[in-house]
């Protein structure tokens, strides 16, 4: 029996800690709960918002409708093919806890994605990534329920149309499906990816000479903890902006004006610029407007200093976009979903 609550505060359900409310709220703990919800009058009469860990949303106002919290749990190995191990995780599993579950079983592939906030169900929607690894690199398939007719559908990697922090679920299929599980192709064969960022440096400082996946995971945890605020202490949604991709001619223009620009060559010949560097060089690292601020250790992150409203943080993000564009002629994009 599903329990739908009315006039619920969403502050506990978003990592920015924004005080906002919704007309109706329900937690889904099983697929049967979801089926019952889809048959209910409350669902049929209201627009809906699906949340998991609430770590990639900015609530700028109260939500006039039904908020559905995906709380589906469960992790299982579904099959093995040689060194490949296919692990299915339900959408409501906490992402970092799932990564640690895999590491404890010596299954490689997710270690670089340690300590990313949120739940498993959001990982393919955002094609989350860090330190040279993205979900698409380890993704096998996902299961989702059609919110229109309640049918279950499987999506392959090709159908998901993954891009940089992008998937089909952020565009053509937005709000049309609810992800119930994701299956990852992991490996018993260890093939570490430590070339990106400061992983090797951190491993050296840890005194690790022959790292395993647990060491790489701990190195990533150490790096992220040193730069990123804990949302339990300071409200934030992790990286607020995407790293912009520019063509070679645009990169050359910026490089000629700013020789120290931080950028990474891409396989298509373009360059990915470090948005954090652009923001910092624009003089905005640590900048504060009201109760909203650019984090003083990582300029990619916007924070709630206490009591900030969603529109305060949105206005700050707009100021960042305009300031960076004025200095570099580069348009940043928000990574966080604005509600």
Low-pLDDT residue intervals, each spanning 5 or more residues: none
Q: Treating each run of at least 4 consecutive H or I residues as one helix, how many helices?
A: 10
Strand order of the largest sheet: 6-7-12-10-11
Structural class: alpha+beta
Mean pLDDT: 93
Task: Output the CATH class name of the largest domain.
Answer: Alpha Beta
| Sheet with most strands | 5 strands, antiparallel
| Proportion of residues in extended strands | 25-35%
Radius of gyration: 20 Å
Query: How many domains, in number, for the residues?
Result: 3
CATH fold category name of the largest domain: Uridine Diphospho-n-acetylenolpyruvylglucosamine Reductase, domain 3
List keywords for this structure.
339 residues, alpha+beta, Uridine Diphospho-n-acetylenolpyruvylglucosamine Reductase, domain 2, Uridine Diphospho-n-acetylenolpyruvylglucosamine Reductase, domain 3, Uridine Diphospho-n-acetylenolpyruvylglucosamine Reductase, domain 1, five-stranded antiparallel sheet, four-stranded mixed sheet, 10 helices, 20 strands, 27% strand
Question: What does this molecule look like?
Answer:
By secondary structure, the protein is an alpha+beta fold. The protein is 27% helix and 27% strand. It has ten helices and 20 strands. The strands form six sheets. The chain has a five-stranded antiparallel beta sheet. The chain has a four-stranded mixed beta sheet with strand order 1-2-5-3. It has a four-stranded antiparallel beta sheet with strand order 13-19-18-17, covered by helices on one side. The longest helix has 19 residues, at 310-328. It starts with a strand and ends with a strand. 41% of the residues are buried.
